[in-house]
Design a protein that fits this description.
Strand order of the largest sheet: 4-3-2-1-10-11
Shape: globular
Distance between the termini: 26 Å
Strand content: 25-35%
Order of helices and strands: EHEHEHEEEHHEEEEE
Largest sheet: 6 strands, mixed
Number of domains: 1
CATH superfamily: Metallo-dependent phosphatases
Length: 185
């Protein structure tokens, strides 16, 4: 299964819809996961022209109360993997944002990441999809794959063409990669 992962679209502040390069980056995906800072449902409608969308949004009940595509936090199964999805990933025992390299620094072999993540999602998860930081991260630690796609239009809080991610699930394993949208412009 091939999944497009996107976050921090900040529509309409960054434009009427996500950058057009997202369509090419997500060509052939079976599903799109949006990890928050959506703001308006027309962004999800636009993405659904590519593939079905499942999303999370901090404060989802305020802006997306009647939209079944959006929840505050999610835990679900896909292709035999348990995926936890949240916009702002706050892991107990960590002193800051989840950025590249921060999990490795905070969770030595003596400190259990799966246990800390269980507190976040109320379940054991194999994969975490999150956003918020606008910094792309694909890292695996202690058997947990963490995927933050960055932002397609505000990477690292700078208004320019950014990134999305592709998550692939198969019986052989799970893997993710960051896709630079500038490769399609």
């Amino acid at each position: 299964m091939k999944i497009g992962v996107i976050s921090d679209t900040h529509t309409p502040g960054t434009g009427k819809e996500p950058p057009r390069e997202v369509v090419q980056a997500f060509e052939g995906v079976d599903l799109i996961l949006h990890a928050g800072d959506i703001y308006i449902s027309s962004c999800l409608d636009w993405l659904e022209q590519i593939a079905p969308v499942t999303a999370v949004e901090l404060g989802s009940q305020a802006h997306f109360k009647d939209d079944p595509r959006v929840a505050e936090k999610r835990v679900f199964e896909l292709e035999g993997y348990t995926i936890g999805m949240v916009h702002d990933l706050i892991i107990p025992g960590m002193g800051g944002e989840v950025m590249a390299g921060s999990i490795q620094r905070e969770f030595s072999s003596a400190k259990s990441l799966p246990e800390a993540v269980h507190h976040v999602f109320g379940a054991a998860v194999d994969i975490i999809v999150f956003g918020h930081t606008h910094h792309a991260v694909v890292e695996e630690h202690q058997g947990v794959l963490l995927v933050n796609p960055g932002s397609p239009s505000l990477p690292r809080q700078v208004r320019r063409l950014g990134q999305v991610a592709i998550l692939e699930l198969s019986t052989e394993g799970s893997k993710a990669r960051i896709v630079e949208l500038s490769d399609f412009s």
